């Protein structure tokens, strides 16, 4: 290959690379082009675990705007808002070893179950962009070496990801 051919190939590659830089992920339908900011309202909490609302709010505020390609804003100036209700929180034992006659079963692992209802509302056009009445997530923790907080943190992380996935599936 001579220098002229090499220069032509490099020039063509640079042009293709420059053209590729103009590609935008906002060309789809979600979020709508006018939605550039999102507010996250603290979720109502129907459980007896009052800390859940704050923990979920912090995770959503930290992760949701970036995942959806928008910025966080106050509800009074945002283009969209996320609202919801924490409907269920429980801890179950999905993994245990049955005890011999007369002995108690040994719990090996516990599972934190979380269920929330969520709406993402376009405040500009006053329409619901996405909603689900039952987004579910489970977090596991080992009975012998971990605490319920470990399972709750995992469930909350998975819940936020499920909200992101649900919203993006509609956008």
What does this structure look like?
The protein is α/β, with parallel strands linked by helices and 171 residues long. The protein is elongated and about 70 Å long. The chain has a single domain (29-170), classed as Rossmann fold. The longest helix is centred in the C-terminal third of the chain and has 23 residues, at 148-170. The protein has helices spanning 3-20, 51-68, 148-170, and strands at 37-40, 44-45, 71-72, 80-97, 106-122, 127-142.
CATH architecture: 3-Layer(aba) Sandwich
> Ends: how far apart?
47 Å
Shape from CA axes?
elongated
Beta-strand content bin = 25-35%
Return the average pLDDT rounded to an integer. 86
Q: Major sheet: size, sense and barrel closure?
A: 6 strands, mixed
In total, the number of strands is 6
Low-confidence segments: 21-28
CATH topology: Rossmann fold
Secondary structure: helix percent: 25-40%
Give me the CATH superfamily.
Answer: ABC-type transport auxiliary lipoprotein component
Q: How much is the radius of gyration in Å?
A: 23 Å
Counting DSSP H or I runs of 4 or more residues, the number of helices is 3
What is the H/E string? HEEHEEEEH
CATH class category label: Alpha Beta
């Amino acid at each position: 290959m001579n220098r002229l051919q090499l220069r032509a190939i490099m020039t063509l590659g640079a042009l293709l690379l420059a053209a590729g830089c103009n590609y935008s992920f906002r060309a789809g339908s979600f979020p709508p082009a006018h939605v550039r900011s999102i507010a996250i309202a603290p979720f109502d909490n129907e459980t007896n675990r009052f800390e859940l609302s704050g923990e979920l709010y912090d995770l959503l505020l930290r992760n949701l705007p970036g995942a959806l390609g928008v910025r966080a804003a106050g509800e009074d100036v945002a283009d969209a808002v996320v609202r919801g209700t924490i409907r269920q929180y429980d801890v179950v034992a999905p993994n245990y070893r049955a005890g011999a006659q007369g002995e108690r079963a040994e719990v090996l692992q516990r599972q934190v179950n979380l269920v929330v209802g969520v709406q993402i509302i376009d405040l500009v056009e006053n329409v619901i962009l996405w909603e689900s009445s039952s987004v579910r997530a489970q977090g596991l923790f080992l009975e012998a070496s971990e605490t319920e907080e470990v399972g709750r943190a995992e469930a909350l992380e998975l819940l936020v990801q499920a909200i992101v996935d649900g919203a993006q599936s509609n956008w």
